[in-house]
Every structure is written in structure tokens, then in C-alpha cells.
Write a structure and sequence with these properties.
It is a single chain. The longest helix has 30 residues. The protein has one domain: Up-down Bundle (Bromodomain-like). A hairpin with a 2-residue loop joins β1 and β2. It is an all-alpha fold and about 170 residues long. α2 runs antiparallel to α8 and α4 packs antiparallel against α8.
Amino acid sequence: MISKLLAGRSGYWLGFLASFGLVAFALYIQTKDNLEPCPLCISQRIAYMGLGLLFLIAAIHNPGKTGRKLYGILHLAAAATGAVIASRHIWIQANPDKVMAECGAGFDYIFKNFPFKKAIDLVFKGTGECTSIDWTLFDLTIPQLSLICFIALGIYAVYLAFITKNRYV
């Protein structure tokens, strides 16, 4: 029963729901606790949405063996991208003295006023906003929790691609 739930089309739907569920949770705590997301938080949300979209496409496609492997590589790449962003955010929070001390420009301002490449560079440098820790769960910060979730979704993608054998409807 569980192997059917975690394989094929239903497995991809579960990945889609998990990815977008994490974005929904982020929006919930943002609204509930009146938090303002920093550029790296927004970048992590974009990575979750990209990963979720890939899971959705795979669920609709319901690929065979070769397709599962291709989707697995794409899912793993998206999860790894999110993990790198979360890791950078964790480093910035652990080393606030090595980044800008005051709050920098917001995500919208950066992309409206700088060329794309420069905007991406600025986002990944982090700002003073990225150093603050405004919310925790089990003493883990949002980027730490996000890193755990990206790793888990990456492992799940590998499971769907290379461990499950059947194509369930």
C-alpha cells in the first residue's frame, strides 16, 4: 500500500504537495508573525516552487523508467539549488559580522534597479536582513529547516527515480 503511494504518479503528486506546502507554511508564518522575508528567503521559496512544478509535470506525464531517471536528475538539481541557497543563508546568519551590518535593499528594489547578473550577485551576497533570526522551531532557524527539507526532497526524488520499480497510475 505505502509503496503504491510513494511510487509513480501518486509519488510525484506527494512531492508537489510537499514543495508547495512548504511555501504555504512560509507564507503562513510570515503573515502570522508579521515577518518580512529577506532575498535569500524568497530565493528558497522560488526553489521550492521550481521543484514543486517539476514534481507536478512528472505527475501529469507519469513517465516510464527512463523518464523517471531524467525527472530524478531534474528534481535533484532543483533540490540541490535550494540546499545551496539555504546553506548560504545559514552561513550568513552564523557570520553576521562578515556581511553588511545594516539592512540592505529589498528583493524588488534589487531586480528593478540592477542588471540581472548584478542583481543575482547582490541577492547571494546577502543583506543585513538575511542575518536576523526572527523565528525558530525546535531551536532551528528557517534556513536550517529549509536545508533539511531540501535534502529530504532530494532523497525522495532519488527514491522515486531509481528505487521504485513500477509505474502506478
